[in-house]
Amino acid sequence: MKLRSHKELHNEMMEDEEYRVAWDDETRKEKLRDTLAQWRKRDNLTKAQVAERMGVTPPVITRIENNITKASIDTLARYAYACGIKNPIIPLY
Fold first, then answer.
1. I want to staple 80 with a disulfide (CB 3.0 to 4.6 A). Which of 15, 71, 73, 88 is the partner?
2. Biggest alpha carbon distance in the chain?
3. What Pfam families would the database entry show (predicted)?
């Protein structure tokens, strides 16, 4: 049995449409999570500081960051504004 690298296996699996759609969905979520982290770290803000600026509790910020697909565009825009981002670019795809 020939061992295959992760890249080879991934490339093979990307031929399956269901796998590709799931991969693209997870990639999009990760990109959005990274964007939120960059916004917050830009001004060295803690989750508690962002929460205070948004008028919510820190657990709400954790839920926004961890369950990114549940956040509305308005919530993401408020998050950006709380982080000092005036004209946020929110990567949806």
1. 88
2. 58
3. HTH_3
